[in-house]
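request received
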Amino acid sequence: MTPMRAMVIDDSRAMRMILKRIVTKLSFEAVEAGDGKEALDLLADMTEVPELALIDWNMPNMNGLEFVMKVRAEPRLREMTLVMVTTESEQSQIVRALAAGAHEYVIKPFTEGAMIEKLALLGLVPTGANS
Amino acid sequence: MSVEVEVDENDLAEMVEQVWEAYLDPEGVSPLMQTYDENQPSEVHSSVSITGSWSGHIVYSSSRAAAQRAAAAFLAMELEEVSEEDISDTLGELANIVGGNVKAMLPPGAQLSLPQVVLAPESSARYPNTERISGVYGLWEGEPVSISMWQSSTDTKEEGA
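response:
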């Protein structure tokens, strides 16, 4: 069976490493990008679209919100599950991200357990994967 | 624009606790022990700036040993594997996380900068026309760590006007 793939998009290498560790533990194959533009460039070259993208908000070149809007405007990428993973925790920002097409929103700092629970809610990992 | 800042030491301490629980001490065995010593030494620091409805900086500073330990915990590495880049990345992300959470407590219209990291003491930092308004100071496994909040004096002056 082909493993599911997750794209980890964050300008912080440290945060990419944390997220990569979590998704790898959940048997995803991880692909990293340092900003929204790099992520879109990588997606353009992929024949198979990753099932999941974990997206920071504040990044240089192209921020996470712009990335979400670009993905939602591209039919080929429609099936991607988009999760914002960010310090932007104001209600208005959460609403903007969800309105733009993000499926879930995780606020930093997050525990590994909290992230896994969110992914389980999205049906991307088995419920109880955290235990 | 003038705003009354409602982020105090307790709020910062709560954020610090969350960061420790999530990344630096998930087992809950080595919390940051507060010393309340505003003059404790630092060897490295990182910061994010906030502009808009409030102007100032959030600064994370620590000893080099604490920074190395933070990177090891953050990146799930052995201490001896930690590189300068790992320390720099981790310090930047810690400032970003605390800064982002502070921003969420400010009136709408605040913007957060990307983090800056300086592998030199906080005292070498130049934040002209700022005033420290809040901070958490402590020891983590015996090493100094602090998170402080500096308000631009233009904001302060406006508040007093």
